[in-house]
Amino acid sequence: MDDELDYGPFDGEIPERLEEDARIKGSSRNLSKARLCPVCPGRFTNVRRHVFHQHLPWYTNPLTACWTCHKQFGQNKMLENHCLELHNCNIADNIFKEEYQSVWTELMNGLLLELCQRYDKKTLDHLVEYVRTEAVFKQCQSAVFHWTDIPLLNFYNKKNRFDVEVIHAVFPPSAIYSLIHWKILALLLKGTEDAENLITFEKEISLYQCSIQKAIMVTDSHFHLDKMKQQARFSGLPIYKWKDGESVYQIRHLVANYAFPRRWPTIEEMGEIRRDRRIRSTAGIHPRIVKGEEMSVLNSQCKTMFPNGKFGISPFLLMDNKYPGYRATVCEMKLEDLVLETDSPYLKPQGHHEASPELLKEIIWKLASMFDVRSEEIARVTTRNARQLYNID
């Protein structure tokens, strides 16, 4: 009779179904500290280290790999012991060196292009879009790059001539280098039919001969970083990039406006903000709200008092029903006097799911139609104006 009883686990105890986990080297039964591996059933106090050691090709974390025998150890201490015991030498003789950077870049290119084939994607950009939309990758929402990854990723982009800046936030990915994050890479490998074979995959491919399309840079000259973080609770801004016809646009700089002293960032917060080199910060003063018929008067007065000032064109331009006079006033201005802003996340035009810096895309389209010029011209002139106004190098 007792053999038929099936009691559940006590609180804090891992069920017996995880008996297989106990055979996974390094797996932990400490529920308070251990985290589930995205690939195997095991729980580990350092999942990142385990995934690099067990589930990814040896070169994916070049800093903890032996470049003599091509093995991954996941941590420097294990690598150091390996070098002493097997190679009878100091760790410095077998670790990742500057001259290996090009080899590492081409190995990563080879792995990512192989994954493109496995997922039937024509380009790496298509693979990025796949990761953005598939539900399985939602678990990467809080993922960030380790600080030791940043110099490598900068070199990766430079070597491949990708005109993007590396940021700490990983998800949602909008640049090819985002695919290199250990968690995204592990989930991509796991989703293939022969993940075990891919762990030993090695192929060096140079992307030098590829035609890399340079993005047209855009600046959001006014948004509220503090409010966006408060609402979304995210660790950093994503890369804002979109395609319009044959042209690719990317928001290169964003000016975070702190309009209220009680929200001014602390010294520690400013240090964190400066880690994203796209962000500039200002303390702003909001003018009083004026009616549509007064805007043209205000326009001329401001240019008289502040001849070097610029007018920020916001999502009000997309709200014809609510602000009918706004468009007419903008038409009276010169492009040389305009900068683009979203005031996000406060302004959300009807029909848009969220208020974010990506609204610049709609504002550019609207201005191009109003001034009868190409979108590229709107982006070029307003970006130049913003760089001059905020002294952005």
TrEMBL record:
Q: Name one Pfam family in it.
A: TatD_DNase
**Domain called C2H2-type: residue spans:** 66-87
Molecular functions per Gene Ontology: hydrolase activity, acting on ester bonds
Similarity field: Belongs to the metallo-dependent hydrolases superfamily. TatD-type hydrolase family.
User: Mind telling me what this protein is named?
Assistant: C2H2-type domain-containing protein
Question: What organism is this sequence from?
Answer: Mytilus galloprovincialis (Mediterranean mussel)
